[in-house]
Amino acid sequence: MGSHENHGSAKTYILGFLFSLLLTAIPLWLVIQHVMNKTALTVSILLIAVLQLIIQFFFFMHIREGEKPRFHVMALVLGAVMVFTIVAGSIWIMTFNSQVH
Amino acid sequence: MAQSAISVDAHHEHQHDTFKLLGFWIFLVTDCIIFACLFAVYAVLRTHTDGDLTGRELFEVKGFTAETFILLASSFTSGLASLAMHKGSKKQLLGWLAVTVLLGLSFVGLEITEFANMASEGAKITTNGFLSSFFTLVGTHGLHVSFGLIWMIGVMVQIGRHDIDSLTKEKVTIVGLYWHFLDVVWIFIFTVVYLLGVM
Amino acid sequence: MGEKAKGFFVTGDPLIYGADVSIIITLLGILIFLTYFKKWGWLWREWLTTVDHKKIGIMYLVSSLLMLFRGGVDALLMRMQLAMPNTHFLQSQHYNEIFTTHGTIMILFMAMPFMFALFNIVIPLQIGARDVAYPFLNAMSFWLFFFGALLFNLSFVIGGSPDAGWLSYPPLSELAGSPGPGQNFYIWGIQISGIGSLATGINFLVTILKMRAPGMKLMQMPLFTWSVLSSCITIIFAFPVLTVTLALLFVDRFFGAHIFTATGGGNPMMYVNLIWMWGHPEVYIVVLPAFGIYSEIVSTFSKKKIFGYKSMVFSMMIISVLGYFTWVHHFFTMGAGADVNTFFAITTMAIGIPTGVKIFNWLFTMFRGRITMTQPMLWTLAFIPCFLVGGATGVMLAAAPADYQYHNSYFLIAHFHQTLIGGVVFGYLAGLYYWWPKMFGFKLNDRIGKWAFWTWNIGFYVCFMPQYALGFMGMTRRVYTYGWDMGWAPYNMVSTVGAFLMGIGFVFQVWQILYSIKHGERDLTGDPWNGRTLEWSILSPAPHYNFAHLPAVKSDDAWWDMKNHRYGAAVQDNIKEYTPIHMPKNSGIPFLMSACWFVAGFGLTFEWIWMGVAGLAGVGICLLARSFQRNTDYYIPVDEIKRTEASLGRVV
Ligand code: HEM
Ligand SMILES: [Cu+2]
């Protein structure tokens, strides 16, 4: 059953692993060497983290698998929006709060 | 009961597989929300050191880098395990799962050492808002990993008993998904807590 | 304060001694009954281990009605205390405990399980499924709720009740502000049942997405199913937030951390921020299914397709997502800054639009329909004006500058009771009357029902209209007494009278149920209201596999279509061969595992670490045991299906 599905191959796993190693090493190096100013550095390492998340989702977790419609992808996308709302919203709301004090 | 009828609904059982997977994905989304809240708390409290040591003074680059690469490697090996399973090789499957568990154990070990070191420097969960949020965020992840380890060992025992069949296959897939997910969460802990912390 | 010194059992209050005695008598009564009639085995096999969604639904229903009773008694005690100035019926400490338990119980242990009761009873039948996606998990959700509620209610007689308000803001709810076990009861009671609610959200989401009858497209689902879908989406995003928030509060209290404390670098406002991120969506979680119920009822009893089906679906989906972006309106006065407040004021008002759309759709559906005035319809009609007023006062509160005036006054109390009672409770009661025949096979008596309806409704307005006035006169919430000089006395007296009228309404309902069990009109057709959706295509009560044949759906209002075009279950002689039906086996693990959670929760409440650890270990063992189980389902043979169908009166 389900053998027609694509479960990834050794190649995709190795590729994904190499990408992840790279995307972990780069920000580490950036931070230790202090190559940019603080804001630029923060933004770039966050972006790299998001990139690595995408790599893992595609190469390791095979989110493209599964029958259509892909409800799990919809749930993940909506989840990402909510995660952003929670984190960014809290920071937004709470920093104003601490300036008032 | 009604053994003979089992073949009638093979289709039905297959459906149940995909149910479980969808449900588990949704569970992962809810777990994302849990971590999002912990990250939000950390983001708000990270400057609340109350005059004590900050992340820059407390975090050790060597330690958290090692943890990161170990967890990354374990995510990879659990992927290899699922690959072995689809090839139908029980020995390889159990082997890669065992490697994953060992890597996971060393991750947890390193984390415990890190926490103990920090505590001996006087940086405890009771010290200030920053450390409270740090320990709850990283500790929650650590608990997830420990839980995953027990689960994975349980699945290994079941494979030992029943070989690779549709039930154990589903279990390996789901525990693997969980393991990859924990790695993804760790990437953000690595970035937001540790890298931004030592910056 | 100094509660630890008071000892294990709560003492020194006649009310509580009364409760102690009645609890012991009830427990003894149950034990004797079960032993004398040899019902222990029956209880275990038929109820405690069941994974049948219909039985689980009935257990939710019974528990929620019990909780409505307890929450109602709390409300009446408060209203008695406030009826006259300078009353000394309750002390201030006691009053604090009562409004805390009232609010918590009404929302988490009354509204939520009532809602889950209707999910369980209706959804699988309405989408033509034989069970939910995860029957085992469904049983677990119920038992987690049950033991969570039990733990919370135990605080009344053991250890002392929580008293920091239904949302327990720190620093009051921190160890320094509430040193006794009451606050821990709050945390663990809600935490344990909250895990169950989250699981139910996932369960019904997957059920609706994956288990619909062959042919039923998403845009052909009944509106109640849509409303449950939207409510579940909100649950899966909101409940994890509650879990974290309470866990962090416990970390503060148990480990001495400084997350929400006022000292040591904590930030109490972060708690307020987080808890409302759950708390606001929570009101949509409970009100959306009520909207779905109204839609079903309006369309059935107007004998018309619902007006604007698509706009109904979209407005519910919009509410379920947008509901997540309004939480700050609960703490505008915190001082988060003008642009934060403006953003959230706008999102809040925006939610009014889809809600308005729905109301117009209901009105248009009724317009020129042939309306039958049944009990479900009565409650629906009562809801509309009530919710309009509640909505209008809500928009008044959403205007951030004005909120500085009304915040924490009786105006607010009147507003949210108007939406919670007029919107949520009326809706669930309407649903209860509507689906009761499907659950039990008989209708609820009309005459007593009308009495209940009118006392509830008149009582509602008499109780809450004066509270708007009290709000303008400056009466703030959570005050336990006031002086003659305030001029509040007459209004408060009227309000209390109204509260008692509602209490009488509830008594009528209990009587109505008991009376109808004996004398109620039997429903032999399975379709007593001439319904439109699939649950009415099978006999009442439904056999435990629900559908002997899975229905093949061709249109929306599937059963109506079958009846009009004579196909499917509407044609008796067209029945195909039966095939064995695949069903899940009963299991004792959900019950045992939730009981272990209870033990853990109780231990952690009293900080008896050994007990907490033992309970958690039990939970772990149950999880492992389940993971190792392999034969979790079975097949019902054809003979048995034939026999069941025949005994239910269906010609085979
Ligand atoms: C049956 C009629 C009801 C009456 C007479 C009633 C009465 C009251 C009263 C007197 C208060 C306390 C006001 C104060 O001192 O601040 C209160 C608070 C509250 N009620 Fe009700 N109530 C009723 C039903 C409900 C229902 C059905 C719900 C929810 C579904 C509900 C939810 C709440 C909440 C959340 C609070 C706030 C508790 C707090 O301040 O922490 N009530 N109610
Ligand atoms: Cu709100």
Automatic annotation (TrEMBL), chain A:
Keywords: Cell membrane, Electron transport, Membrane, Oxidoreductase, Transmembrane, Transmembrane helix, Transport
Coiled coil: none
GO BP annotations listed: aerobic electron transport chain; electron transport coupled proton transport
Cellular compartments annotated: Cell membrane
Residue spans crossing the bilayer: 12-32, 38-61, 73-94
Any one GO cellular component localisation term in the record: plasma membrane
GO MF assignments: cytochrome bo3 ubiquinol oxidase activity; proton transmembrane transporter activity
Pfam families assigned to the protein according to its UniProt record, in alphabetical order: COX4_pro
Source superkingdom: Bacteria
Membrane topology, as annotated: Multi-pass membrane protein
Entry's family note: Belongs to the cytochrome c oxidase bacterial subunit 4 family.
Name of the molecule in the record: Cytochrome o ubiquinol oxidase subunit IV
Automatic annotation (TrEMBL), chain B:
Quaternary organization: Heterooctamer of two A chains, two B chains, two C chains and two D chains.
InterPro entries according to UniProt: Cyt_c/ubiquinol_Oxase_su3, Cyt_c_oxidase-like_su3, Cyt_c_oxidase_su3-like_sf, Cyt_c_oxidase_su3_a-hlx, Cyt_c_ubiqinol_oxidase_su3, Ubiquinol_oxase_su3_dom
Listed GO biological process terms: aerobic electron transport chain
Primary localization: membrane
UniProt xrefs under Pfam families: COX3 (PF00510)
Similarity section: Belongs to the cytochrome c oxidase subunit 3 family.
Key words, A-Z: Cell membrane, Electron transport, Membrane, Oxidoreductase, Transmembrane, Transmembrane helix, Transport
Top-rank lineage group of the source organism: Bacteria
CDD domains cross-referenced by the UniProt entry: Ubiquinol_oxidase_III
Protein name from the UniProt record: Cytochrome bo(3) ubiquinol oxidase subunit 3
Organism listed in the record: Fictibacillus enclensis
MF GO annotations: cytochrome bo3 ubiquinol oxidase activity; cytochrome-c oxidase activity
Cellular location(s): Cell membrane
NCBIfam families on file: CyoC
The keyword Membrane is assigned to this record: yes
Domain spans labelled Heme-copper oxidase subunit III family profile: 1-198
One Gene Ontology CC term in the entry: plasma membrane
Residues spanning the membrane: 21-44, 64-86, 93-110, 130-157, 177-197
Described purpose of this protein according to its UniProt entry: Cytochrome bo(3) ubiquinol terminal oxidase is the component of the aerobic respiratory chain of E.coli that predominates when cells are grown at high aeration. Has proton pump activity across the membrane in addition to electron transfer, pumping 2 protons/electron.
Gene3D superfamilies associated with the record: Cytochrome c oxidase, subunit III, four-helix bundle
Membrane topology field: Multi-pass membrane protein
UniProtKB/TrEMBL annotation, chain C:
Bilayer-spanning residue ranges: 15-37, 58-78, 98-123, 135-158, 185-211, 223-251, 271-294, 306-327, 342-364, 376-400, 412-436, 448-469, 489-514, 586-602, 608-625
Catalysed conversion reaction: 4 Fe(II)-[cytochrome c] + O2 + 8 H(+)(in) = 4 Fe(III)-[cytochrome c] + 2 H2O + 4 H(+)(out)
SUPFAM superfamilies per UniProt: Cytochrome c oxidase subunit I-like
InterPro entries tied to this protein: Cyt_c_oxase-like_su1_dom, Cyt_c_oxase-like_su1_sf, Cyt_C_Oxase_1
Pfam families for the chain: COX1 (PF00115)
Start and end residues of each Cytochrome oxidase subunit I profile domain: 36-554
Subcellular location: Cell membrane
Keywords, in A-Z order: Cell membrane, Copper, Electron transport, Heme, Iron, Membrane, Metal-binding, Respiratory chain, Translocase, Transmembrane, Transmembrane helix, Transport
Molecular-function GO terms, alphabetical: cytochrome-c oxidase activity; heme binding; metal ion binding
Membrane-protein topology: Multi-pass membrane protein
Top enzyme class: translocase
Pathway of action: Energy metabolism; oxidative phosphorylation
EC number: 7.1.1.9
Primary site of residence: membrane
GO biological process, one term: electron transport coupled proton transport
GO cellular component, as recorded: plasma membrane
Entry's family note: Belongs to the heme-copper respiratory oxidase family.
UniProt protein name: Cytochrome c oxidase subunit 1
